[in-house]
Each structure stands twice: as structure tokens, then as C-alpha cells.
Amino acid sequence: MSLSGRTRLAGVIGWPIGHSRSPALHNAAYRAIGLDAVYVPLPVPPGKLADALAGLRAFGFLGANVTVPYKQDVAALCDELDEVALTAGAVNTLRIDEHGRLSGWNTDVAGYADALDEAGVARGLPALVLGAGGAARSVVLALARRGHPVIVIARNPQQGASLLPLGAADVRPWTHEALSSGLRAAGLVVDATSAALDPGGEQAMLASLPLDRLGEGTFVSALVYHREPALLAAARARGLRVQDGAAMLVHQAARAFTLMTGQPAPLAIMRAAFAQAT
Ligand code: NDP
Questions:
Q1: What's residue 2's pLDDT?
Q2: Which of 35, 62, 100, 156 lies 20 to 30 Å from 186 when distance is taken between CA atoms?
Q3: Residues 231, 196: contact at Cβ < 8 Å?
Q4: pTM
């Protein structure tokens, strides 16, 4: 990568941020289209978010992505929000115009819908979402807008209830009964939990799921992207079609790339960069 006196900056804000694949994806895309720009990790310690945004403006950043733990907090600090970010209450992409105005966008929602489109998942299938954290918010909104009736099963009833205004038709507790009837009725199952981030938790979650209730044509999706989650391996072994979180990650990055640069995203290059970074 060569830097010039005119090299533009972009990056990803989070804490911690060392694990992020975003720099690999965006820098590969910049190289592919010959854009004189560089995308860097931007670790922002607690309490420093507003200072970091002032820094982005001061340095004339093209924009930035935003990840854990700032997707909600950053929304209140933007000059304007796009409709999806406003509805989701979460921003994952910032754009800065030539006057320093900061707009907040959410490309996770459309990125997840793009991933389902790419896999040819039919619109309107009854969907079951497991978990009710930040990622589930984007998934539920994407599914509702794709015309899926959505049932959420979550351990935390309050967190689950917060998905009703985003389009979930019903929220149920994490019980054998609810999981059993939910899996049986679903044409699309989405694991939006973070269980796979901890191998012990993942096995415990898998053990709680009566996978024998899944219908033959059910599509099983998970948001984890650093390795194949055990749920997807188990679903594949049952002959079901599956998709991990890489597709959503690449599509949200592609949309963020276009928002920040105004150029179509080189999707195949970004996908290859993701695979190489893994
Ligand atoms: P959060 O911490 O906000 O939410 C996690 C959710 O999972 C909570 O509802 C939590 O329930 C639930 N959960 C965790 N462990 C279990 C378990 N063993 N059984 C049942 N429920 C469980 O995380 P995020 O929503 O931010 O992230 C979720 C996953 O999505 C992560 O793996 C993350 O890497 C991935 N992700 C992928 C993206 C992509 O582009 N592919 C984008 C964003 C996230 P409780 O509150 O009861 O603990």
C-alpha cells in the first residue's frame, strides 16, 4: 500500500478493535479500484467517543464503520440518521460530507437481507430468531422488511420484547417447548446469539435445541463468521442448507464502502479478502 500527501482516511471505531476484519476488506477494495485511501482500526477507549468523532471531522475522514460497543451510542452524536439507522436505533457506518456533517447509516440490516437474497432464501418464510442482542435487532428488521413473520426466542424477556417494535410478531422464552414448536414451524432459523464465541456455551446451546423438529427444507443461518458454528455443522449433517455470518459481514462492508466512496463495491475482491483474513 502506498501513501501519498493526498491519501484519504477511513476506519472502524470500536473497543477493543484488534479482531476486526474490516480493514482487510476495505483496503483490498481501495487497492482494487485504485483509490488513494487507507482504512485503519480506530480503538476508542470508553468515554472518548465524542472526541473520536471530532477527530474524524478534523482529519477529513471519508467515513468510518462503528462496532461494539458504540453502535447505539454513536446514533445520538450524528447530525442526521438514515431511516434504517433511526428505526434500528443503531449505526454501523458514518459518512462525513465536505462541510463536516456526520450522517449515520445502518448497513447491517440491508447486508443481512443481501446475504439471504444471495443464498436464494424465499421471502416470507416463517422465521425463527434465536437471541435478542444487537445483531438480532438488525436481523429482525431485515426479516420483517423481507416479509417474514418472525418469532424470537430469547433468554432475557425484556431484551426480547425490545424486538417487537422492529417487526417481531412474537417473543417467547428459551424453553424446550418454545424451541420445539418454533423449530418445527420455521422455514428459516437464524442463530443471532453469541453462544458460539464460547465453545462451552455453544455446546450447551446446541444441546438445548431439538434439531429433530427441523423440517427438510429449512434454511439455517448463523451470524458468527470466525469459524463454522456447531449449529450449522449439525444442520448440514441433517442435509439442510446453511449460511454463516461471512455473507452478512461482506455485504454490510460492501454497502459501507459505497456510502463512503460513492463507488460500486468490488464484492468478489472483498469476499476474497475476508477469506484470506480468516
Ligand atoms: P450481544 O451480546 O448483543 O447479544 C448476544 C445474544 O445472544 C443475547 O441475546 C444473549 O442472551 C444470547 N446468548 C448468548 N449465549 C447464549 C446461549 N448460550 N443460549 C442462548 N442465548 C445466548 O451480541 P451481538 O448481538 O452483538 O452478536 C451476536 C453474534 O453475532 C456474535 O457472534 C457476533 O460476532 C455476530 N455478529 C455478526 C455480524 C456479521 O456481520 N456477520 C454482525 C454483528 C454481530 P443473554 O442476554 O441472555 O446472554
A1: 80
A2: 156
A3: yes
A4: 0.97
